[in-house]
Amino acid sequence: MFNEDQMKFVPAYYAANGKGQRVPFIVSLMMVDDENKASLPPAVSASIDRTLRRR
Predict the structure, then answer these.
(1) Burial label, 44 (beta-carbon count in 10 A; 0-12, 13-18, 19+)
(2) Residue from 30, 13, 31 nearest 22 by CA
(3) Which of 8, 11, 44, 51 counts the most CB atoms within 10 A of its CB?
(4) Residue 50: which pLDDT band, with cuts at 50, 70 and 90?
(5) H helix and E strand count, the chain
(6) Whole-angstrom Cα distance, residue 6 to residue 44?
């Protein structure tokens, strides 16, 4: 389905409110694997994990 070597990182974007507080979010397409199960590309999963570990 995906070649992990082709995509290592996915940029996170930030949404901010009027007080300057920011929250990260990632825009991604939801893919399906060979069994038609919903699946995120490995780079997206890694970016989400990295973001959660920083908190």
Answers:
(1) buried
(2) 13
(3) 44
(4) confident
(5) 1, 4
(6) 13
Read off the tokens for 47.
């970016």
pTM of the model: 0.42
Question: What is the pLDDT, as a whole number, of residue 7?
Answer: 54
Using an 8 Å Cβ cutoff, are 13 and 35 in contact? no
Let me know if 47 is exposed, middle or buried by CB neighbors in 10 A (0-12, 13-18, 19+): buried
Helical residues (DSSP H) of 1-55, grouped into ranges: 42-54
- pLDDT value, residue 33: 80
Alpha-carbon torsion 19, 20, 24, 26, what sign? Answer: positive
